[in-house]
Amino acid sequence: MRAYLAQARAEIRLTLTQGESLLVTLGIPLILLVGLDVAHIVPTGTRREITFLAPGILSLAIMATGLVSLAIATAFERNYGVLKRLGATPLGRPALLAAKTSSIAVVEIIQTAVILLVGTALGWHPLGHVAEAAAAIVLGTVAFSGIGLFLAGALKAEVVLGLSNALYLVMLMLGGMAFPISRLPGALHAVAVLLPASALSQALVHSLGTGGAVPLSAWAVLVIWAVGAPALAVSTFSWE
Amino acid sequence: MAVIEVQDLVVRYGARTAVAGVSFEAHASRVLGLLGPNGAGKTTTVETLEGYRQPAAGRVAVLGMDPVADRRALAPRIGVMLQQGGVYARMSPRQALRLFAGYYREPEDPESLLERLALVDAARTPWRHLSGGERQRLSLALALVGKPTVAFLDEPTAGVDPAGRLAIRQVVRDLADGGACVVLTTHELDEAQHLADNLVIVDQGRVIAQGSPSELMAGVGGGSIRFGAPPHLDVASLSATLGAAVVEDSPGEYTVSTSPTPQAVATLTSWLAQRSLPLADLRAGRGTLEDVFLQLTGTPGTGQAGGAAVQGGRSRGRRSAGHRSERSEGAGRRRTGSRR
User: Fold this and answer.
1) d(C-alpha B176, C-alpha B183), whole Å
2) Most A CBs within 10 Å, among B47, B87, B88, to test the A interface
3) Among residues A116, A106, A145, which one has the least CA distance to residue A22?
4) Domain limits, chain A
5) pLDDT score for B135
6) In this complex, do A90 and B75 lie within 8 Å of one another by their Cβ atoms?
7) Which of B8, B173, B224, B227 is deepest in the core (most CB within 10 A)?
């Protein structure tokens, strides 16, 4: 417990003082939220844009935490021999994972609060399907953290740096986060619906934005990624 | 009882055998130095003791436990200094020490470690902006923060300036005097001589000699005088005067095969004086670790490795093969092949 607390404090401090990380987890989502809302370019049909944009951007932020911030930080820790060194301390892997999870939770609570605040200021009236939204955020976090840790544990830090940012962009475009995936051409749409990004954004747009039941297909895609990605990470992760 | 037991250890990386049958013991309150050229298998041996590598054959025990299987039980009692890295790039020494102190039940005071390792001025500097020597000292401090019973230090003085080396030597000495068993690696003979109570010399994955530095050094040079002088001396004349064979090992480097008595040295120097010849250097009696090392590894095939290992030292001509075995027998130490 002692070791976990020390580690969690350190992880939270490191994450919240990492500029590049804050840029992708908070900066870019907020710029897109405000920018796209003000520019009125998101094709949402007759609905108010913010109703789609705020939950879409929240899913982008959640994605960034696991896929980009966690992946890059872990890749560099591996690169600098930190993970190896920690292996020789009494900390232990379960406590290390718990500390990283705590740090992710803190970041996501901040993200959610800030996006709710800014979204509300822009005229958003979030719906109250809190349980559904929370379940989607947890599943999405597990899925994206799994992908992030898979990259971090298998590839060189510099490669992870580039690749996770590239995936972030791809998912931003194909993930129904900045505009609905119904606007994508047929083939791209077929790929997009299988991505964890679109499943998360769909779940959040429905539970917090437009209302209506979250499609079962979105839950299925989220669950498959949330199980598969961490399993892949665990089986391939190299600590040195 | 030995704190660390290594018996016929073999470690492989795929097809490559990094450690090929190493045996030694290390004890409480003693500093054991693993000495050898780069690639000799020192780090692999230490990392096996730390639980990072699984032996392909043989047995290792730390405090009577298996480093891999009993990792959780061992972790609170061992201190580890990796050859490089191991610290969060954005953490300062003070932050890193406080974090690591949090892993242990009764840790050392981070502030006192900062002082003892001369890191007070750098205490707030992020790791990535520290100098090589500061990083080494921090890494050592992190190995000590849990008050270890056993400490593994991989190349603790590599890249450290002379003042830093003195601080590190003192800290290592204090650690052993406090009852800990210290195992360190180095490829620098001078460091080995200063830091270790016992040495295990490894080359190409095998132990080629072990003993205390003085035991090892007593084994070489006992039957000879070596000196440097202008090249191409009249060795026949000198041999006749001394009544012993004189060989010019390499241009300007000579070995006299006689006991290094004051009389012999006086005869040698007066012979040079009569001819107004300068004496570059003179060594009589026990050799240096460098001699031990060259003698053991300075044969064709391993000579390059041996040469790399004495970086910073003066390079000397290689001894002839005959000379080598003759001295080795006189040394009375355990050699490869003569396993218990």
Assistant:
1) 10
2) B88
3) A106
4) 2-236
5) 95
6) yes
7) B224
| B4-217: in CATH 3.40.50.300 | yes
Tracing tokens 């990535």 back to the chain, one arrives at: B128
| Mutate: best of B68, B84, B100, B128, partner A, most A CBs <10 A | B100
Residue of A nearest to B126 (CA): A14
> Following CA atoms B289, B293, B295, B301 in sequence, which dihedral angle do they give, to the nearest 10 degrees?
-170
Contact state of B86 with A240 under an 8 Å Cβ cutoff: no
Please give the model's pTM, rounded to 2 decimal places.
0.81
Per-residue pLDDT, A30:
96
Q: How far apart are CA B145 and CA B159, in angstroms?
A: 22
CA–CA min distance B140, chain A (Å): 12
Q: Where are the domains of chain B?
A: 4-217
Sites in chain B below the pLDDT cut of 50: 299-340
Nearest to B80 among A2, A5, A88 (CB): A88
Q: What is the pLDDT of residues A31-54, one digit of tens each?
A: 999 999 888 777 766 567 899 999
**Residue B146 at interface with chain A, using a CB cutoff of 8 Å:** yes
3-state secondary structure B20-76: EEEEEEECCCCEEEEECCCCCCHHHHHHHHCCCCCCCEEEEEECCECCCCCHHHHHH
Question: pLDDT (tens digit, 9 = 90+) per residue, B23-32?
Answer: 999 999 999 9
Query: What integer pLDDT is reported at residue A98 of this predicted model?
Result: 93
- Contact: A80, B88; criterion CB under 8 Å: yes
- ipTM, 2 dp: 0.89
Residues in chain A: 240
